[in-house]
Amino acid sequence: MTVMFRLVRGYRLAPGADLRSVDLSACDLAYVNLSHANLEFANLRNADLACANLRYANFQGADLREANFWGADLTGAVFVDALLDKAVLTAAKMTDANFIGAELTGVWMFA
Fold first, then answer.
1. Conformational region of residue 56, where left means phi above 0, alpha means psi within -120 to 50, and beta covers everything else
2. Residue 110 — pLDDT band, cuts 50, 70, 90?
3. What angle do CA 25, 27, 29 make, to 5 degrees?
4. CATH no. for residue 89?
5. How far apart, in whole angstroms, are the C-alpha atoms of residue 37 and residue 31?
6. Domain assignment of residue 95, given as a range
């Protein structure tokens, strides 16, 4: 049997999930598939999203301060007005990602 989702703090994490305003701060979400998920205004501060599939995910207004996106696929993701202070975006794929109005102070983006 193949599991297509993950439960974290009672939230079902799967592609296309509606996770608006949830608190997933400091959670280990490495390798999770949240492509096309709605994470508007979610709290993901200090979350580990390394190598996660976040293609076309919506992070509008989300708190992503100090989150780790190392190696994540952020293709087409929306970060409009999101807080990304001190987040790690090293080696992340960011083709067509939208960072308009996002707070990017101290972000790590080394190749």
1. left
2. confident
3. 125
4. 2.160.20.80
5. 14
6. 14-111
Both tokens of 5, joined, read 């989702």
Across residues 4-23, what is the average pLDDT? 88
- Answer for the pair 51, 30: CB distance below 8 angstroms, yes or no: yes
> How does residue 5 score in pLDDT terms, banded at 50, 70 and 90?
low
- Return the DSSP state at 8: E
Model confidence pLDDT, tens digit, residues 57-67: 999 999 999 99
Q: What is the pTM of this model?
A: 0.93
State the Cα–Cα distance between residues 24 and 3, nearest whole angstrom.
20
Pick left, alpha or beta for residue 54 (phi over 0 → left; psi -120 to 50 → alpha; otherwise beta). Answer: alpha
Amino acid at 6: R
- Domain assignment present for 108: yes
- Map residue 30 onto helix, strand or coil: coil
How many Å apart are CA 20 and CA 83, to the nearest integer? 15
Q: Is the distance from CB of 94 to CB of 78 less than 8 angstroms?
A: no
